[in-house]
């Protein structure tokens, strides 16, 4: 099991590369393969930290505990001030279960982007959610050769064009970590931005401790700041307890 504890027992931040360190001879295939290889070394993860949500209506934060087993299981527990249990979510590729402790209500249904947005406050597919929480990677349809590949501000930039818009990925050249992803519509308007920061390296794996998703047009931001991380632990608990008297509802 690999453990990351920031600050007091820091295992080293990965510094941003300078222009003299970037290898301009690398092909997009070579850079892309390095990004995917690093991310694929994270088979499972256990972490704790702070979840922050900012919208025009609210600005709040809470403690969280998360267990992830790639590619198919995710458990999140949310705790408010003074240790108050707010709820938990168990999500698989096919099903989700959201339990609201304050309302004693269990909501379940298929784990599609609309339903995942009820708990995570962002509309996201299950695979993309797991990839984001474990460090960020290319979306499935962006695993091939990009439409454009360039160097910008000492970072590799991948551009993929689709019928409904464009996605751009910025890759840090020393760790081959994705540091930023832009989702743009067909007119070039930025719909969603993912950023990754506070990188640490343990063994042959580099991961971010800060993950942020910003929806500019909706003025909505979700930030996940890991305080404690365990990479590839030997065992993970996915225990999901719901009181027998909880109100139950199902959505489609």
Describe the structure.
The structure is a single chain. The chain is mainly β and 252 residues long. The protein has one domain (23-228): Lipoprotein localisation LolA/LolB/LppX (outer membrane lipoprotein receptor (LolB), chain A, Clam), CATH 2.50.20. The protein is built from three helices and 15 strands. The protein has a 15-stranded mixed β-sheet that branches. The longest helix is centred in the first third of the chain and has 13 residues, at 28-40. It is globular, with a radius of gyration of 19 Å. The chain starts with a strand and ends with a strand.
Q: What tags apply to this protein structure?
A:
mainly beta, outer membrane lipoprotein receptor (LolB), chain A, 15-stranded mixed sheet, 15 strands
Concise structural overview:
This protein has a single domain, classed as Lipoprotein localisation LolA/LolB/LppX (outer membrane lipoprotein receptor (LolB), chain A), CATH 2.50.20. It is about 10% helix and about 50% strand.
